Amino acid sequence: MWEMILAGRYMMIPIALCSLLGMAVFLERFIVLRSRRIIVPELVSTVKTLRQASDFSVAYAVCDQHPGPFSNVIRSGLDHAGAEWEINRDVMQEVGRQEAVRLTRNLRALETIAAVAPLLGLLGTVVGMIRVFAAVSHAGLGNPEVLSGGISEAMVTTAAGLIVGIPALVGHNWLEGRAHAIIFDIEVYATQVLDTLRARREHKPVEAN
């Protein structure tokens, strides 16, 4: 195995770096995008009981206990509960967009690695084939081992690029699906909060002057 890696020569270095970077990004996003870590059951319960709550003190306390994208969206709605519905909606949408960007952060890097690693492998193969034909032009075809050995060495980088690129692509698509599922859940609960705040505002008794 180590001999095959050495056979790829210097083009194996950027492929190895892509492998390490892709693994680091995947593990970081895998830890961050744990659904129960973001869609916390306590926050979900708070959203569902917000209509019956006398004030928002409990909701604020739960948000403080579970900071994150979900609680930030809920808090933005609570902070503007007294504003017009359109203003509150726009604020929550803007905070939601910001949190969505944070949730999908670094996924573009993983997608880039999935595309670049096979290309680096192909480049290594092309460079290797050029080296093989240069050797053949000097030594001739009298020794077929030179040709076959050189071609096998040139193909190592292509194999290495695919070994890195395929898992990176699968990991990117899986993490992207998980991020979009979490964003969808946040949007659903944010809509519930917005509807609750509008209902509370509409049924709020008018204070006498």
Please give the number of β-strands.
Answer: 0
Largest sheet: none
User: Helix-strand pattern, N to C?
Assistant: HHHHHHHHH
Task: Tell me the structural class.
Answer: mainly alpha
Brief descriptors of the model:
209 residues; rod-shaped
Task: Characterise the protein shown here.
The chain has one domain. 81% of the residues lie in helices and 0% in strands. It has helices at residues 2-7, 12-32, 35-38, 41-48, 57-65, 69-79, 85-103, 107-139, 144-202. The longest helix has 59 residues, at 144-202. Residues 205-209 have low confidence and may be disordered.
What are the SSEs and their pairings?
Blueprint: H1 2-7, H2 12-32, H3 35-38, H4 41-48, H5 57-65, H6 69-79, H7 85-103, H8 107-139, H9 144-202
Helix pairs in contact: 2-8, 2-9, 4-5, 5-6, 6-7, 6-9, 7-9, 8-9
Give a quick summary of the entry:
This protein is mainly α and 209 residues long.
